[in-house]
Amino acid sequence: MIDTALLQDYWWLLISVLGAVLVFLLFVQGGQTMLLDRLTDSDRSNMIHSLGHKWELTFTTLVVFGGAFFAAFPLFYSTSFGGAYWLWMLILFSFVLQAVSYEFRSKPGNLFGTRTYDTFLFINGCLGCILLGVAVAMFFFGAEFTVTKTRILDAGSPVISVWAPTHGFEAIFNWRNLVLGFTVLFLARTLGALYLRNNVALPADSDFQGRMRFQVLVNGTVFAVLFIAFAILLLTSPGIRTFYEGEPQSVPYAYLQNFLALPAAAVAFLVGTVAVLYGIIRTILSATFRSGIWAAGIGTILVVMSLFWVAGYNDTAYYPSLLDTASSLTIRNSSSTQFTLQVMSWVSLIVPFVIAYIAYVWRAMDRRTSC
Hints:
Blueprint: H1 4-25, H2 27-32, H3 41-51, H4 55-72, H5 74-83, H6 85-104, H7 114-141, E1 145-147, E2 161-163, H8 169-172, H9 175-199, H10 207-236, E3 239-242, E4 248-251, H11 254-261, H12 263-285, H13 292-312, H14 338-347, H15 351-370
Antiparallel strand pairs: 1-2, 3-4
Helix pairs in contact: 1-4, 1-13, 1-14, 4-5, 6-7, 7-9, 9-10, 9-13, 10-12, 11-12, 12-13
């Protein structure tokens, strides 16, 4: 029988991969935020045609990410989704806007006009990216909740997680969370411009390609500044760790220590950062280079995976409580049973086939776009 701790580590690894792929796929949201720019109808149509073939992949990955978290670490799911209610409802609302917009934007007899649905897509692109960044930032900077498992026996109020009365609004307006939120937004805008530059079949000297290159310059610069600010915040922030199965304790510079203790995380973070910068800088310097999305995309996946690793591994609480240190969630105290984790691990063996299917669908969609 596989050891429970090994299963917990394995599932946190899978969740980190899903989370990293989700952040990369936010290039769709990033591209949508440019729809309200001064573009010709032809350019806007090319953008919709390109992005509209990929948005389902982003939404599907988000659902799979949430489902994996629910199955592997149900206490996080019940604590976060039940407590940070308004945060998650706003995220859901923004993605509903996206689905409705792509479905009805070009329908015959559209009463609202395409501009209305382009505005909805802009809202999804901005709001979705910022709020998802805020949700991830809570893995490092904590949330205002307490967990009392014995309350499940209280017939009058069997709620084990208690949050602040604002139910997630306080997280949205936490400035440290917003730093990561806006970092994700400008990363998505940068990736969106890189993707459109690669995917829209127009000459390199076309006005649209020039606009996308300029977007990479502006958004990539803002992203770099925000990313440095987030990295400084992260490396100087305390974290909560459990020593030898004892009481959780606050540890200064916990995430810096985790990078030093987890060489794979440090290497992935550094290599990923270099890859993202390479994709951005090479695109800015070369008018004919159109493959920046792949270097920046792979780099994004590596960086996000490394952030998940330093958040959850090395006995670190991946969901710190700001109200009660002992209530902080770790991959040890919030996971499913060994039986559940083991059964799901067998199911997870189909993941490579799912990835292969996504790659096949991606290529098929691109072929259809180029026709």
